[in-house]
Structures are given as C-alpha cells and as structure tokens.
Automatic annotation (TrEMBL):
Ranges in coiled-coil conformation: none
Protein name stated in the entry: Fatty acyl-CoA reductase
Domain Thioester reductase (TE), chain residue ranges per copy: 26-156
Keyword Transmembrane on entry: no
Source species: Cardiocondyla obscurior
GO annotations of cellular component type: peroxisome
Stated role: Catalyzes the reduction of fatty acyl-CoA to fatty alcohols.
Gene3D superfamilies per the UniProt record, alphabetical: NAD(P)-binding Rossmann-like Domain
C-alpha cells in the first residue's frame, strides 16, 4: 500500500511541473470534457505555455465567434476571478478534423511545431451521424493529428498517455 501521508503537504504536484512552459493542443475544447480540461489546465498550471484550441465553424458561427462565446461559460468564472488575463495563454486555431490536413493554414502548421502535449478529445458522438462523416471525424481526424504530431520535435512522450490513446482505439 502506498504511503499517502505526504499527499496533503504543500509540495507542488507533478502535473503543474509537467506542464510548466509546455504548449498544448486541445481538440474537442468546446465539448463537456474539453471545457473542463481547459479550465483545469489554466487554473492549476499557472506556468503553462500556450493552449492551442482547435475550433471549426459550426451552426453558422465562425471559429472566432465560437471561441469568444466559449469563455462566457460559467465554468470559467473562478478562473476569471483568479487569473483575469488568462486569455493571453489561449490561441484559437481554425481546424476541421473531418478534412485532410485538418485544413490547417501553413502559418498555423508552423506555429504548432512548438507543441509539447496534445489532448485529442474531439469526436462525433451522435448515433444518427452519417457513417462517412463519423469515420472522417473519429478516425481520419485522429490519423491527421498523429501525422501532425510526428512533425513536432519537442513533443513530450509519456508511456501512460500513449497507453490511453491506444486503449481508445480498441473501444
């Protein structure tokens, strides 16, 4: 049984240390888990680098409009009080996981090369989604993201994270 007596002391957690100075890509940032992930990373990892949040046009709204509305969510209220300038760490990247190359601009592709961590939480979960679209988003999107990741020289690799990615393919 591990000794948990040390768990309540003031030593900095490994998580903020891991993310200190790291630039992070997040897909699916407008979904339930994505919103919570963004808030938690920004609030609990004050030394995190940039968060590159992939966003696409949806329901007649541009990625810029969606991103602006994104931070009106009450989940971010505590973060806004504790870190009023948190948005300087955010960069919206226009991307579409259902498209080849994620439809990233050349400028964004180059910008993303300094990424250290990727959280891929985007997927379609609609049971009535057209099969081709579901495959394009859930499978091709993951493949395109992995191809992009192969070009990132500073990607932090953690065996535990790779295992989670592998398991998600088997479900």
């Amino acid at each position: 049984m591990p000794d948990l007596s040390d768990a309540t002391n003031d030593h900095q957690s490994e998580i903020p240390q891991f993310f200190a100075g790291s630039n992070v890509i997040i897909t699916g940032g407008s979904g339930f888990l994505g919103v919570l992930l963004i808030e938690k990373l920004l609030r609990c990892c004050p030394d995190i680098g940039k968060l590159y949040i992939f966003m696409r046009a949806k329901k007649g709204k541009s990625p810029e409009q969606r991103m602006k509305e994104h931070f009106d969510n009450s989940v971010y209220d505590r973060l806004k009080k504790e870190q009023p300038n948190f948005e300087v760490k955010i960069k919206m990247v226009e991307a579409d996981l259902s498209k080849l190359g994620l439809e990233l601009s050349q400028e964004d592709q180059e910008l993303l090369l300094d990424t250290n961590v990727i959280f891929h939480a985007a997927a379609t979960v609609r049971f009535n989604e057209a099969l081709r679209l579901a495959v394009n988003i859930n499978i091709r999107g993951t493949k395109e993201l992995l191809l992009l990741a192969k070009r990132m020289p500073n990607l932090k690799v953690d065996k535990r994270i790779i295992l989670v990615v592998f398991l998600s393919f088997t479900i």
